[in-house]
Amino acid sequence: MNFDELALELHKKYKGKITVELRDNDELTREKLSAYYTPGVAAVSKAIVENPENLKEYTWTNNLVAVISDGSSVLGLGNIGPKASMPVMEGKSLLFNHFADIDSVPITLDVHSPDEIVATIKAIAPSFGAINLEDIGAPQCFEIEERLKKELEIPVFHDDQHGTAIVVLAGLINAMKVTGRELRDAKIVVSGVGAAGTAIIKLLSKYAQPRIFAVDSKGVISANRTDLNEHKKEILKYSNLSGIDGSLSDIIQGADIFIGVSRAGLVTKEMVGSMDKDPIIFALANPTPEIMPDEAKAAGAAIIATGRSDMPNQVNNALAFPGIFRGALDNGVKQITDEHKLAAAKVIAELVERPTTDEIIPSVMDDRLVPSIAKVIV
Amino acid sequence: MNFDELALELHKKYKGKITVELRDNDELTREKLSAYYTPGVAAVSKAIVENPENLKEYTWTNNLVAVISDGSSVLGLGNIGPKASMPVMEGKSLLFNHFADIDSVPITLDVHSPDEIVATIKAIAPSFGAINLEDIGAPQCFEIEERLKKELEIPVFHDDQHGTAIVVLAGLINAMKVTGRELRDAKIVVSGVGAAGTAIIKLLSKYAQPRIFAVDSKGVISANRTDLNEHKKEILKYSNLSGIDGSLSDIIQGADIFIGVSRAGLVTKEMVGSMDKDPIIFALANPTPEIMPDEAKAAGAAIIATGRSDMPNQVNNALAFPGIFRGALDNGVKQITDEHKLAAAKVIAELVERPTTDEIIPSVMDDRLVPSIAKVIV
């Protein structure tokens, strides 16, 4: 189905997707207005002056996530800036509301350097209970998240990195069960080292230290290359410890798992045929995967996952982020750690009681997801 | 009534005052999610890339006002900072929703210099349809508003200045009718030259060029004083053109109108007695006026207005700002001009069909206010 027309029609009809309402649905008498605003509200402000922790007792910040982007790396659209990225961020706020009853406000930024983005987010941070960074390009997204995590006392989570990594790990845990493998013994090729690829490499490494090879448009990332920026050098801590050089078609030979967060059509049948027996293919390029599922199957793939909702095994961030933030807000968590991410991945995997080749990941509509994940974000 | 207890009780019960809901109340099918978020939303983003004006056709920004404060000058509380000021700003967002069906988000800032505040607001401006500055101290509020008005393409309105000035002018228009005066012939003393006092002086001057004298804690502001900062020197353009020196009790003699936005108990019965016949007293210090209404009446005041809801003639910003922003958003107005403010004041005054000493200003509950004001913000 082509969703473009429906999207334009719905957005035009409602003139946007979210709205602000009052929590108190009873009649707002003049007396109540004097309690919600001046003069009564002064008592509430004084209670927060006395103890800043009261902020979450008395204001909506206890349930509030800012979805923040500079529009520099929007899925399938690239660097479209703050205005054109607003519908995407407002959509993310809709998902927060729909899946996890979280109040969420989209904030799109007209600044783009890490210094300016960090300064702006720090300046507005007291207004929110948590921050979801979204669609900020690599490598600046890494510095931005790292600095904010250090400098703010509320959770900061770049969903393009960690949401994707959590769901990929969840899917791999079940794919290992289905194909009778152990992740720690696997050879894994990750194509694409932007936000998602990097986070996937780090999280898989943290989980089981498998043999990982990262590939960019120039080939395998190895210490022998002279064109690596700081960010790609950092990836060498988690990948290619044996120092192998080569192209994607070289390194994919004998691999157990291919994870693509790169571009459409990059993987050929021959490449799949050169992998280990019963290979696992996560072809996550959107909207067109690195290889189409039917081709991959024909070439011998045991399991294939994509980013698409019209194919089995959809790797979708919406499986993870609503529960992650629900837990962080409810449990007063101030940092989303690697342990939280690993725990969330395991919980997501466990929700599929009997994994099969066509069901390694639960449906995004599974209403056990949010409460189950929230419970482990403590 | 003491509103403190009710305020604490209500804020605790609801854990804040506002919440985000979805505009589309029908079932969110998987198909609709694909239109509201990826992949369908890309078509909406592309439409905004092609024409940035589409932002207001397709996103909630068309009905969205940010209430922004650094918490440096909160009514009756002073410089309490971003966290403790959040309940007040969230209350303002509640008023926007309640009176004008405007979506509003409170943003409290952890930065305080004009440069930092301007940079932060410019950075987040694409996220909103209009900006209401609130409770930012003088004189920095003047520079902040002025720079933002120049540099942004959405309306910026510092309500503590202009909301108050509009309602004061509305009240004075009717007070003139009741006491058979013309504003252009009046001698007016304004006590307090912070955000509100300054805006009142400028708007009255624009409306009728009456003789205005501004008074601060050191006495009448005059060109002979050597202690004036740039902001107070600016006030000399609109006041004390004859260069008179003296104290409040000197200058109030023979005045037709006293407007206090200063502090409790500043005005004595003797001062009121020394004014012109049937003097008009706007004693707007909150929560305790410069002189209590019964005292002022006993000393001969014809009309007295205060900021209090439990006394007649309440000068309340909520009479003006909901309609101002409703009009600005609906009519695509990019700047709130002096002409808009004058027009709004006239409309508010006209809503009182037969003004009397006890009714020069409509009730904040008058549901003609918002549509009537919105109509003249074009």
Write a short abstract of this structure.
The structure is a homodimer of 378-residue chains. The first copy, chain A, has 378 residues and is of the alpha/beta class.
How would you describe what is shown here?
The first copy, chain A, has 378 residues and is an alpha/beta fold. Chain A has helices spanning 4-14, 30-36, 41-50, 55-58, 81-100, 114-124, 140-151, 159-179, 195-208, 230-235, 248-251, 269-273, 293-298, 321-330, 338-350, 369-376; strands spanning 18-22, 64-69, 103-108, 130-133, 156-158, 187-191, 211-216, 219-220, 257-260, 280-283, 303-306. The first copy, chain A, has a six-stranded mixed sheet with strand order 8-7-6-9-10-11. A four-stranded parallel sheet of chain A has the order 3-2-4-5, with helices on both faces. Chain A starts with a helix and ends with a helix. The relative contact order of chain A is 0.10. The model of chain A has no long low-confidence stretch (mean pLDDT 96). The interface between A and B is large, with 95 and 94 residues.
Which structural class do you get from the secondary structure elements of chain A?
Answer: alpha/beta
Reading the helices and strands of chain A in chain order gives HEHHHEHEHEHEHEHEEHHEHEHEHHH
Approximate helicity band of chain A:
40-55%
Q: Please give the radius of gyration of chain A in angstroms.
A: 22 Å
Largest interface: A-B, 95 and 94 residues
What's the overall average pLDDT of chain A, rounded? 96
Q: Profile the largest sheet of chain A.
A: 6 strands, mixed
Note the total helix count of chain A. Answer: 16
Strand order of the largest sheet of chain A: 8-7-6-9-10-11
How large is the share of residues in beta strands of chain A? Answer: 5-15%
Described by the principal axes of the CA atoms, the overall outline of chain A is elongated
Name the poorly predicted regions of chain A.
none
| Ends apart, CA distance between termini of chain A | 40 Å
